[in-house]
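User: Second chain of the day. Same drill as before.
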Amino acid sequence: MKSAFFELTQNNMMRMDCRKERYYDENNTADLEETRKFKETVTEAFQLSRATNYGDFVPFLKWVGVNGLEKRLQELQKKRDKFLQDCD
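Assistant: Same format as last time:
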């Protein structure tokens, strides 16, 4: 059930972002690779959204970058940008 909801959500998101009618096609290996990248990006985004940013509670820790959250968020944004550029 979880994978069916994820696929439905994925199809809707890709329809909005990349204007593709059907995102996932089992016979097309390029679609499988895009699906894998998309799942990794979404999973990483959810993991980072749950992470605690200690710099929000103790401001000087933000300068130090204790848990590296901001760097990981910047890397994730680069992945998202590349994915959206490649989806056309």
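The mean pLDDT is 79.

User: Great, on to the next one.
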